[in-house]
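hey
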């Protein structure tokens, strides 16, 4: 009984704090919910801003290894967050790599952009892990 409680507590801890290593990050479980909350309102299939679709089932094909329409970087370079334009747009460093426009996600109410740090770190970890379609 004690062992079951310890294992359950350990599993619960993983569920609460999320992935602990870059390889633990999942597109479907970790990254897509961020896209759904923060990005999909403007990046829908029917009216994708910048031609970028971030809906579930479309995001991987639309980002990984695909040239950016704003800079000379790919949208996502597997294993390389610093070489991924999507990461630069989310960090607000996109202008330094030849990009344009505002930091994403843009909030019209505040006139600013950006993700919460924990959500940005999830996306960076996914890219660092090779941006798998998992």
């Amino acid at each position: 009984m004690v062992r079951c409680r310890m294992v359950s507590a350990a599993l619960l801890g993983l569920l609460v704090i999320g992935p602990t290593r870059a390889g633990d990050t999942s597109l479907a479980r970790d990254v897509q919910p961020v896209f759904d909350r923060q990005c999909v309102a403007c990046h829908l299939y029917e009216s994708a801003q910048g031609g970028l679709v971030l809906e579930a089932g479309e995001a991987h094909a639309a980002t990984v290894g695909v040239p950016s329409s704003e800079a000379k970087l790919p949208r996502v370079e597997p294993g390389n967050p610093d070489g991924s334009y999507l990461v630069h747009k989310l960090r607000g460093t996109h202008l330094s790599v030849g990009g344009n426009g505002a930091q994403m996600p843009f909030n019209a109410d505040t006139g600013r952009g950006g993700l919460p740090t924990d959500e940005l770190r999830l996306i960076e970890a996914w890219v660092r892990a090779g941006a798998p379609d998992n």
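The helical segments are 2-17, 27-38, 59-63, 85-91, 117-128. The longest helix spans residues 2-17.
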